[in-house]
Amino acid sequence: MKSNQQSIEFPIEGKLSFIRIKENLEQFIRDNSIRNQDYIKSLLVKLNEVPELLEGTNDVKVIEKHKGLIDLLMRLFFPPLLTTNEIKGAAMPFDFDFFYMSEPLKKIMEDAGKGSMLDILDFNPEQMYIMGCTTILQAHYKREVNLTVPIVVELNEENGSPKYYRAAFSADLMEIIPTENAKPITDEDFHLLMDNFKNIDLWREKIPPNNFVFRGLGIVNLMDITMDQSINLMTSNLLEGTKDAFDKVIDNIRLLLKIEGFHL
């Protein structure tokens, strides 16, 4: 997995697959719950001719090769008339490298400049690993984990000013597949993990790296929280009381008011 453009150890291997989209479209046809059935059937015929898009891949070249078909499929789940205000993208499971974006997200990324990436804030590699493990506990082992940690991402605009977004993930188009090395989690194991939640070595022991495959695609919804984040940063800097705290507050005000040359 990649976090902040760097490869990190993770308990899950993500693979892009359109198998769940195929299953959903086939169900729509059986239920007669979708218009333009002939068009949908023609897309399914084309999709069935590309087995790598169904079996799962993490090869970017496959995505580029079949971009035309992928765009047609994604338009069914990102209707242009219904996503004019949604900051929304599709990517491989647990990734922010979008292969399809709503128009608002596309404009945000274009304005940020070529090669810009979303960086996850306040999550180190160990915390990311534990987050992946809790996802496995809930999705595969059916264990209830009361963990509601918001994921905030940062994107620097072309002028260097940061923008902040809260990210919400949908796993509706994913499936989890344990590898042959996946271990059972007993009640004792579960309680031990919950009682030692920050013990990364214990998490790695019970749920080793790459022991699960998440196959499908992730839908990510972003909400602009730049103003809230700027106020939080300004409050923290005021309380910090260090020598450069005042300069940091001025930077926060510049970001909040969108006035690059603001001075006091």
List the helices and strands and how they pair.
Blueprint: E1 2-3, E2 6-7, E3 12-16, H1 19-31, H2 37-48, H3 52-55, H4 60-65, H5 67-77, E4 87-91, E5 100-101, H6 103-112, E6 119-120, H7 125-139, E7 151-156, E8 162-170, E9 174-178, H8 187-195, H9 200-206, E10 212-216, E11 218-224, H10 226-240, H11 245-257
Parallel strand pairs: 3-10
Antiparallel strand pairs: 1-2, 4-5, 4-11, 6-7, 7-8, 8-11, 9-10
Helix pairs in contact: 1-2, 10-11
Describe this entry's structure for a reader:
- The structure is a single chain.
- The chain is of the alpha+beta class and about 260 residues long.
- The protein has 2 domains: about 1-225, no CATH class; about 230-264.
- Helix content is about 45%, strand content about 20%.
- It contains 11 helices and 11 strands.
- The strands form 3 sheets. A 6-stranded antiparallel β-sheet has the order 5-4-11-8-7-6. Strands 3-10-9 form a 3-stranded mixed β-sheet. A two-stranded antiparallel ribbon has the order 1-2.
- A hairpin with a 2-residue loop joins strand 1 and strand 2.
- The chain is globular.
